[in-house]
Amino acid sequence: MYPKAYIDYLVYFHSFRDYFECHEALEEHWKQEGKANKVWVGLIQLAVAMYHHRRGNFKGANKQLMGAIKILKEEKGKLSELGINETKLMDLLYAKQIEIKKQLPYYSLSIPLNDPTVIEYCKKNSQEKGRSWGEKNIKVSIELIDKHKLRDRSQIIEERKQQLNRKRNR
After folding, report:
1. Which ranges does the record mark as transmembrane (predicted)?
2. What residues form DSSP beta bridges with 84?
3. What Cα–Cα distance (Å) separates residue 34 from each residue in 1, 66, 76, 136?
4. What are the sequence ranges of the domains in the chain?
5. CATH 2.40.128.130 fits 4-141, yes or no
6. pLDDT band at 157 (very low <50, low <70, confident <90, very high)
7. Chain segment 17-51, per-residue pLDDT in tens
């Protein structure tokens, strides 16, 4: 069975194209798991790269995608365990990297899944959330495109203050 956070990531990635929520869902899982599984970081960076590309931030998109490619190459085998076709994914990422370097317009990318079980979980989860699995180039609102600017950051600011205080008190 696959972690719920991973299924959520895939649903946000393929059915909503909400890359910000992909990041949120998988980052929490990665932290709870103890940060040892780098494949989660690679997938998070892929979502962040897509977020930046859609916003026209080519520098940020390229940096994140380079990080994702590096990690996902190092984590060979773990993608297959997640039902992902590693070869196809890496080919897509290299092609996306060229597009970003050429500053070509954004279009959505689908992670090539080869496990019918993960696909069925994702289809069911998407339907429960009122979406169709795998829709390409969904029209998205400005709220989704600029989600990082519009969210409530009070909890993040408070956490950073606490971290700073802990550093000062050492």
Report:
1. none
2. 113
3. 19, 24, 20, 34
4. 4-141
5. no
6. low
7. 999 999 989 998 998 888 788 999 999 999 999 99
